[in-house]
Design goal:
By secondary structure, the protein is mostly helical. It contains ten helices and two strands; from the N terminus they run ααααααααβααβ. The chain starts with 12 loop residues before the first helix and ends in a 12-residue tail after the last strand. Hydrolysis of the deoxyribose N-glycosidic bond to excise 3-methyladenine from the damaged DNA polymer formed by alkylation lesions.
């Protein structure tokens, strides 16, 4: 019997694997939250499949998303990144990654972990939406507006409300699987 998946991923094996194994699964680990945050910021203006296809290149180029290393990147490392055809070579996004690593660590210092901070917006529990069709899910919400505004106040870049809502979906802060999707009740 074929499993029903959310319509956005059907037909591409990489997309389907991401959907089946990662998308919407609650993430409480700071390292994973940082990786998703950076990947989402690079996605701004692009499709997620573009980022997903370059994900391993991003991991290698950005020292496996080690935010402590990234916070200390110098001009030579930035030049290397901007010449790496395996990633999105956008100077503003590369520089934002460095400033976001610094801001990320400040949040950790203040809250004990980034996870405590970000999950505090939903009282530590995923919001379970009930969409019949993935197209009914919003691009942003008043909550993603609030988180975006707070992150910007804390020095984060490329964290508009749409980017933040995508991050919330990816990291399981919201469950936007279609109600008929086999993952809806699993995550």
């Amino acid at each position: 019997m074929k499993k029903h998946r959310c319509g956005w991923c059907v037909g591409d094996s990489l997309y389907e694997a991401y959907h089946d194994l990662e998308w919407g699964v609650p993430v409480y680990d700071d390292d994973q939250l940082f990786e998703f945050l950076i990947l989402e910021t690079f996605q701004a203006g692009l499709s997620w499949i573009t980022i997903l296809r370059k994900r391993e290149n991003f991991r290698k180029a950005f020292d496996f998303f080690d935010y402590k290393k990234i916070a200390n990147y110098d001009d030579d490392k930035i030049a290397d990144l901007l010449s790496d055809s395996g990633i999105i070579r956008n100077k503003l996004k590369v520089n934002a990654t460095i400033s976001n690593a610094k801001a990320f660590m400040k949040v950790q210092d203040e809250f004990g972990s980034f996870s405590k901070y970000i999950w505090g917006f939903v009282d530590g529990k995923p919001i379970k939406n009930k969409f019949k069709n993935y197209k009914d899910a919003p691009a942003n919400t008043p909550l993603s507006d609030k988180i975006s505004k707070d992150l910007k106040k804390r020095g984060f870049k490329f964290v508009g409300s749409t980017v933040i809502y995508a991050h919330m979906q990816a990291t399981g802060m919201v469950n936007d699987h279609e109600i008929s999707c086999f993952r809806y009740n699993e995550v």
